[in-house]
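On clarity, I found the account of how folds are encoded harder to follow than it need be. Since the whole study asks how a given chain folds, the encoding of that fold should be made plain. The format is easy to grasp once an entry is in front of the reader. For illustration, here is how one protein appears when written out as sequence plus structure tokens.
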Amino acid sequence: MAKTPTAPRPSQSDAVPASDDAATVPAKTRSKLLLFGAPVALLLVLGGGLWFSGALSGLMGGHKPIRVSGPVFIKVPEIVANLNVTDGRDSYAKLEATLELANSASAAEVRHDMPRIIDVFQTYLRAMHPSELQGASGTYRLREALINRVRIAAAPNVIRNVLFEELIVQ
């Protein structure tokens, strides 16, 4: 087998660039990318930081906080009522309560309906036996019954709860 002569391979140092423009094109695009891309990226990072910190909404006028009115409490005058007993003894209940309203808009109307609310409380208390008011379950049943009756008496106003300040049964 005879060896055929091959042409010598050029080394990388022997290679001559085709033109100077071909070598400088990537360098020009990199410099343009840095020149325009870096400020855009910096603005995006700064804008995102300001947005999440809340400083940007303050500069742009932002939203005014919505003022939500909390519950309103109206005190019911003290009620003393005799209870329904069959053994001839006198038994009384003393009740001091507060009404919890959903908002302040209906407070004036509920105050106007207070005589009706007091009448509902007294009528219901007079129909109860002393044994029905004993213990936590008796207090709970009284509260639920009064809430239902007050909601009817004060309709269309929203009564959330009846809070007992004092409940004494003798």
